[in-house]
Design a protein that fits this description.
Layout lengths: L4 H4 L3 E6 L14 H5 L4 E8 L6 H14 L5 E3 L3 H9 L3 E8 L9 H8 L2 E5 L21 H13 L2 E3 L5 H10 L23 H9 L4 E3 L3 H4 L6 H15 L4 E3 L3 E2 L2 H10 L22 H10 L4 H19 L2
């Protein structure tokens, strides 16, 4: 009998959230949860726009140092070849992402610096406007001149540009300037749940037209009514796949490991997480352990092994091959 598909194909969760306190590694042993769920690659967030920009390099130092101490089980995903070596050795490959260009601190050369430290995708903005462009929950004025320079520099160094959390006008500006596939790393269809953090059909089609990928997240309020059932999650995956093709859909659960940290953000950053948009305590998430069940549910819906292999990780790998240097 063949092993389950999740054990036979590359599985890539393109966004996970560990606590962002420099020097704090309490939760990093929980990366084993990804490995136990047959995940081969995970991208960890190292900062977002509501954080002071100086924290992002310190978080990179924290995560990289811990990974360097645990090389028997983990490897930095610095290249496609490194991912393949890690998978062959039974290790979890880890790369990093930055949620919003505020972390650049106004310096274009930080794009290269972050890339050299393992950051493989970055958002333009996180919910609110910043120096690069507009956020999805703000009065979006479009991509700024600095934002255009950043998009060009990301293409040059091999970093993937992401428009999750980004305003629609700015997203279309990015798409117009795109030299490489653009991703929505963790954005769900607004056609199913009308929330400004979700994205419309036309935006999803435009991202797919660049060769990009839309990653479905497992956050309850974006799935609808804080419902994190497998049935609801795969309904979002299926909606995206029917709209833009399975070759443009991926998984980015956006699982938060430290709920106390999340609650502190909700309490302290009301402009980024306004209560009237559903940001309240008792957030619910689809956990990494659900991936085998998600695969089974999609199989039951009639998805072929080849389409599932693309959704589970092949599409993220394709973008990495095309963009990473």
């Amino acid at each position: 009998m063949n092993a389950p598909l999740v054990e036979r194909t590359l599985v890539w969760d393109n966004h996970g959230c560990m606590p962002l306190y420099p020097g704090d590694t309490r939760f990093l042993p929980e990366l084993a949860r990804y490995r136990d769920a047959s995940v081969d690659v995970v991208s960890l967030n190292v900062g977002f726009d509501a954080h002071p920009p100086e924290l992002t390099p310190r978080m990179l130092d924290t995560f990289r140092a811990w990974l360097d101490e645990h090389t028997s089980d983990y490897a930095l995903a610095t290249s496609v070849e490194a991912i393949e070596r890690a998978r062959a050795a039974g290790k979890l490959a880890v790369c990093f992402d930055v949620e919003g260009g505020t972390a650049l601190d106004g310096r274009l050369d930080n794009v290269q610096h972050f890339y050299d430290l393992g950051v493989r995708w970055m958002l333009i903005a996180y919910n609110r406007n910043n120096a690069l462009g507009g956020g999805c929950q703000d009065d979006d004025g479009g991509l700024t001149d600095f934002g255009r320079s950043v998009v060009g520099e990301m293409a040059r160094v091999g970093m993937v540009t992401c428009c999750s959390h980004t305003g629609e006008r700015t997203t279309y500006d990015v798409l117009e300037a795109a030299e490489n596939p653009i991703i929505l790393s963790h954005s769900n269809p607004r056609g199913l749940v009308d929330h400004p953090r979700n994205v419309g059909d036309d935006v999803m089609r435009a991202v797919a037209a660049t060769g990009g990928v839309v990653g479905i997240n497992g956050i309850g309020i974006f799935l609808g009514e804080n419902d994190v059932s497998t049935e609801t999650f795969v309904r979002h995956v299926d909606y995206a796949a029917q709209l833009i093709g399975a070759e443009h859909v991926g998984l980015s659960l956006d699982y938060v490991f430290d709920l106390e940290e999340l609650e502190a953000y909700l309490d302290e950053q009301g402009s980024t997480f306004p209560e009237e948009l559903g940001y309240r305590r008792e957030f619910r998430f689809v956990e990494p352990e659900r991936l085998p069940a998600i695969c089974e549910a999609l199989t039951a819906m009639g998805y072929s092994d080849s389409d599932l292999a693309a959704i589970l990780g092949g599409n993220w790998l394709r973008v990495a091959r095309e963009v990473w240097n």
